[in-house]
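Morning. Coffee machine broken again, so started the prediction first thing and wrote up yesterday's gels while waiting. Chain of 73 residues, entered below exactly as on the submission form.
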Amino acid sequence: MFEKFLQSIMNEHRGKALGILLGFIASILFVSYGFWPTIFIVLCIFAGYQVGKKLDENVDLEEWLKNLFNLKK
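Came back before lunch.
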């Protein structure tokens, strides 16, 4: 019963459900750690996501980092 309910919520209201979940997690982080530590955590998560995404896409990580930071050889 509960499984069907969750499945229907995720099929019909995926964006709203994920938004509520992210808002809930953000509120817990803000209350527990404060504003700047929470911003740092979010930036670290975003950076980790970007690196993982590039690895999934089989992008040369060294070349991508060089382009990101405009490093010369």
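The chain has a mean pLDDT of 85. Going to sketch it on the whiteboard this afternoon.
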